[in-house]
Amino acid sequence: MHFLKRFITVAAVASLALTGAACGDDGGDSTESGPVTLRYSWWGNADRAAMMQKAIDLFQTKNPNIKITPSFQEYEAYWQKMATETAGNNAPDVFQMDFSYLREYADRNALNDLKKQEGDALKLDDLLEGLKGAGEVNGGLYGVPVGGNTWGYMYNPAVLAQAGVPEPKPGWTWNDYRASLARITQATKGKVHGAANYIGSYYNLELQLRQEGGLLYTEDGKIGFDKARLAKFFNEGRALVDAKAVLPIEKSVQIKPQHALELDLIASELGWDNFMARYAASTKAQLRLGPVPSDNPNSQGQYLKPAMLLSVSKKTKHAEASAKLISFMINDPEVGKIFGANRGLPATNAQRAAAQLEGPLATVAAYEEGLKDQLTKAPPAPPKGAGTLEQAFIRISEELQYGRISVDDAVNQFFTEVEETLES
Amino acid sequence: MTTTTSTQRREVGSTEPAGPRKRARRSGDGVAGYLFLSPWIIGILLLTLGPMVTSLYLSFTDYDLFNPPQWIGLDNYQRMFDDARWLKSVRVTALYVALAVPIKLACALAVAMLLNNERRGRAFYRAAFYGPSLIGASVSLAIVWKAMFSDDAVVDQLLRAVGVNTGGWAGNPDFSLLMLVLLAAWQLGAPMVIFLAGLKQVPRELYEAAEVDGAGAWRRFRNITLPMISPVIFFNLLLETINAFQVFTSAYIVGGPNGQPAGTTLFYTIYLFDRGFGDYRMGYASAMAWMLLAGVGLVTLFLFRTARGWVYYSGDKR
Q: Do the beta carbons of residue B302 and residue B308 sit within 8 Å?
């Protein structure tokens, strides 16, 4: 009997199924009368939730006719919930959107085109130049950025000085960068590595491609590089592993979810500049931000990436109120003050001025200000499946760094994923 | 019990068939019975059978959660055999089951035999060994486990003290699976309690008689204990095997959705979850779930077949 019971339990696990949504009504008209209630979801932690509540209270005081029902999860759980809610025709009116999911949701007809509200309920004039138009997909406006950040080179100047490595200056090349990694690792006898292997991040490949005038994904959603180009990238990383110049992958995997820069295991990192705040909070080192290496003297390949956007569900009955909420969240100076750089560096000039950034965040703001004229146009919203591909890239690069597959295998595996993901 | 006696009485007492009144009362009992069962029945219909049927349907479709499912027949099932990661997840899971189940059962039996003797503080030890199973599925436990098996952590230091240098297991593809096997073995409480109950059932006279005949400890274990508790071993074996196929929480915490390090902890359930909720391929994930059911079913059937050879029930003629 017990066996049977167990068997049924197994069967229950087998039934992963989510009952698909059968019924549902189409999005209503946007004429508002009387009080409305909006559901508003975001990803984040308790800190962000406390800030969000303050901002929501402020909004409700200023708009007594609109009530907000908030809800939040951490990042991965959030996307699982959004997917199921959207499938069940039960998506929240306003929700936080990631750049890599924007096209996926827009293409699947899950988002409301905000062009209709632009100018009236939704004011976008104050957005930073680099972020204007960042939420557009196929001519529609499906997301409004609340924050932006840039890829940068973060480093610990004390360790660089100790190893006799000069601080980076504009115009330094990828060869200079790789040489610096080996120098640091040797000088500290492996106590501190120069960096973690840069082939672990998809965005370092994007950076190199952009410096060459290319893109990670083309305008029409195809992959922007070929096998030979990826092999070159992976070979560079393979050589760093063989030379023992970078932090061994065993170490990076073990310390997750912490980062090696937080634990002073490495002296530098190529990454999103807003992570400075997080790293600086855990390490005693005085981190600095410098120019990224580039083999092209005329381009550093950096751009202002929308860190986080706000979108409105296609099914909302309150398109106008939703637009009002978004407009408030990105423009209101007091909201800027409440959040500081919690949502990435603020997306509008007014909020950036009000945010009163200090310490590492002031460094980041100054860094982005200094780059303003060199930043190039943000890429088009990545194609559907980009999130899956990024995961595949991380996974395959990891196996390569462990030495469990060859560069050729790694390249072929990734392109198999590309075929499967982008063609379907 | 009561039914047998009443039937017997009727057979003996009278040849007259049961009257209609009696039958009516009986069906009334049935209704009451079903009423009492109804919460469970409703639960199983809505929360288990309903989703199961849906999942079976979805397994023949291409379903991404956003668009209506498209019927594609057996494609999902066929695709699995060309999917390198699926094959990998099958290998990882099979290896885990083959290692974790025997190790855990051997440890559970050993501990149960130790605790079966009269000794001071027996209750405390039983509780202490059962404890880890109570918190078995907890997230914090897996996090602690991972921390213990990192570079320079407890396990690494102990091993180095005896001259074995493996580095942290958490980041080493050669040891990561073993780390999870040990975690499973440590949570031996449930099978241990069942073994204890089984050991209590073995008649003392058998041991006494064997001792008189000069049988040593190993002999007594081999020829009395093992055959006498073989039904309990079989029961534990089934339960643990089926459970081991479904390992998820600890593996997810240690290895994440990619089965780090280097895919060595990519269990079947992890890959299934990643396909469904990471890549939104619900059709494929559903098909994977049904393949798992079929796989576990086959293994269970196989175990039942072999059981005839080694499981003895009291009253058996063998």
A: no
- Tokens matching residue A344: 């990435």
Which region holds residue A377: left if phi is over 0, alpha if psi is between -120 and 50, else beta?
Answer: beta
Contact A164/B at CB under 8 A? no
**Fold that domain A151-303+381-423 belongs to in CATH:** D-Maltodextrin-Binding Protein; domain 2 (3.40.190)
ipTM of model: 0.75
> Is residue A24 within 8 Å of A109, Cβ to Cβ?
no
Q: State the smallest CA–CA distance between residue A388 and chain B in angstroms.
A: 6
For the segment(s) A37-146+307-366, the CATH number from 3.30.565.10, 3.90.1170.50, 3.40.50.300, 3.40.190.10 is: 3.40.190.10
What is the DSSP track for B139-155? HHHHHHHHHHTSTTSHH
Classify residue B71 by its DSSP letter: E
User: Quick count: other Cβ atoms within 10 Å of Cβ A168?
Assistant: 20
Write the CA distances from A35 to A29, A64, A116, A321, B312, integer angstroms. 15, 8, 22, 10, 73
Residue A2 sits at the chain B interface (C-beta within 8 Å)? yes
In this complex, the residue of B55, B65, B235 whose CB is nearest that of residue A84 is: B65
> B84 in helix, strand or coil?
helix
Residue ranges of chain A that CATH labels 3.40.190.10: 37-146+307-366, 151-303+381-423
Burial of A3 (0-12, 13-18, 19+ CB in 10 A): middle
- Test A84 with B66 for CB contact under 8 angstroms: no
A404 to chain B: nearest residue by CA? B262
What is the distance between the alpha carbons of residues A39 and A315, in angstroms, rounded to a whole number?
Answer: 12
Closest residue in A to B254 (Cα) is A254
Q: Report the distance separating Cα A196 and Cα A74, nearest Å.
A: 26
Q: In terms of C-beta distances under 8 Å and separation of at least 24 residues, what long-range contacts does B2-9 make, across chains too?
A: none
Name the amino acid, one letter, at B6. Answer: S
CB contact under 8 A, A398 and B262: yes
pLDDT in tens, A123-159: 999 998 888 888 999 889 999 999 988 999 999 999 9
The per-residue pLDDT for range B240-267, each reduced to its tens digit, is 999 999 999 889 888 888 888 888 999 9
Distance from CA of A8 to the nearest CA of B (A): 9
